[in-house]
Amino acid sequence: MEFFSLNGKQVSRIGLGTWAIGGGEWGAVSEDDAVATCRVIFDLGMNLIDVAPIYGHGRSEEIVGKAMREHGRREDFYIATKAGLEWNERGVFSNSEPARLRQEFEDSLRRLRTDYVDLYQIHWPDTTIPVERAAEVMRELLGAGRIRAVGVSNFSVAQMEAFAAIAPVHSNQPPYNIFEREIDVEILPYCERRGIAVLTYSSLCRSLLAGRLTAETPIPEGDIRRLDPKFQQPRFGQYLRAVAGLDAFAQKQFGKRVVHLAVRWILDRPGISAALWGAKRPAQLDAVKEILGWKLDAEAMAEVDRIVTEYVTDPVGPEYLTPGVRS
User: Fold this and answer.
1) Shortest CA distance to 259 belongs to which of 275, 243, 273, 272?
2) Alpha carbon distance 159, 24 (integer Å)
3) Cα separation, 61 vs 63, whole angstroms
4) In Å, what is the CA distance from 55 to each residue of 33, 86, 87, 92, 124?
5) Label partner for 80 (CA 20 to 30 A): which of 119, 181, 197, 245?
6) At 37, which helix (H) or strand (E)?
7) What separation, in Å, do the N-terminal and C-terminal C-alpha atoms of the chain show?
8) Cα separation of 176 and 245, whole Å?
9) How far is CA 279 from CA 25, 60, 109, 207, 272, in A?
């Protein structure tokens, strides 16, 4: 496994993303499978698990907490969780009111059954209040030793600048994959200049880059991908053809498959610290082993660009994931 340093701690460059194991938007998951998925990371040399209260409305944090108890050594895990989203019958909304953030933190500790968080992140910026108010809470928790590092997620450069005036920004977590590269323009260069670790989510672009989907693959009711424009025709066909082209290139050039190429591509981009890999069964992490021990050179990167440009003529980003604004 490859590692990077985050505020003095060694963290695996591939981390487990736990949105799916909470059930809800990704279908039912058995508790046994979910806990086993969290524990199998050590067989692969990983220690990073990224979670959030919104994932399964607290269920993912409970699952991670159970996995830590069964494993028996809390210090083996590098737990990154988040705050700053609320949900109700009307939808999901950003909320970084200080009182709410403090309560969310206590709730996360209770679900995880731990007394500290390795990396605590503001999940989405709350545009209804100054970002500095969230930073004040994070500075308070860091100073008290209750969190070991401060992170943000889905923040713009301006929002990171404002936040950093109050509290350190040790990491940023944006969406990033072969099909979604908006952070290349400003966010990634900014983080690289400032020494801010970048942990990317949606590494496989909601399973598109896993290489298993076809035009006939059913997307179940309630699955978050039903809202994703990438999974709606004619775009879906464009992305599937690009995946097929990338898969053929990966097999011919490296003896790998598109799922391995997709994550290796992220890890080999300048300024990227780690890629998060979503899974809800242990077997879905088997491919991690095929990502290590090789790299993409400039020529291979250029070929990936060529394939994407050839097939995806109507690209769209992950904007549909943006939460609502509180009234």
Assistant:
1) 243
2) 30
3) 5
4) 16, 11, 11, 12, 14
5) 181
6) helix 31-39
7) 45
8) 20
9) 13, 12, 23, 10, 21
User: Side-chain half-sphere of 240: how many Cα atoms within 13 Å?
Assistant: 13
Looking at 2.60.40.3760, 3.20.20.100, 1.10.10.60, 1.20.140.10, the CATH number of the domain 3-207+259-294 comes to: 3.20.20.100
The catalytic residue positions are: 55
To which residue do tokens 């400039």 refer? 298
pLDDT tens sequence across 298-318: 999 999 999 999 999 988 888
Which letter, b or e, does each residue of 214-250 get, where b requires 16 or more Cβ atoms within 10 Å of its Cβ?
A: eeeeebeeebbbeebebbeeebbebbbebbebbbebb
The predicted-structure confidence for 147-192, as pLDDT tens digits, reads as follows 999 999 999 999 999 999 999 999 999 999 999 999 999 999 999 9
Distance CA(280)–CA(19), nearest Å, equals 9
* Percent of the chain residues topping a pLDDT of 70: 98
Tokens 């424009």 belong to: 229
Please give the model's pTM, rounded to 2 decimal places: 0.91
CA dist 327 and 317 (Å) reads 26
Backbone angles phi, psi at 57, to 5 degrees: 50, 50
The 10s digit of each residue's pLDDT in 89-102 is: 788 899 999 999 99
Q: Give the pLDDT mean for 234-263.
A: 96
Tell me if residue 320 falls in helix, strand or coil: helix
> Rg of the chain's alpha carbons, rounded to an integer?
19
SS3 content of the chain, % helix, strand, coil (to 5): 45, 15, 35
Tokens of 293: 């021990």
Burial class (CB in 10 A: 0-12, 13-18, 19+), 54: buried
Nearest-5° Cα angle at 184, 17 to 198 = 40
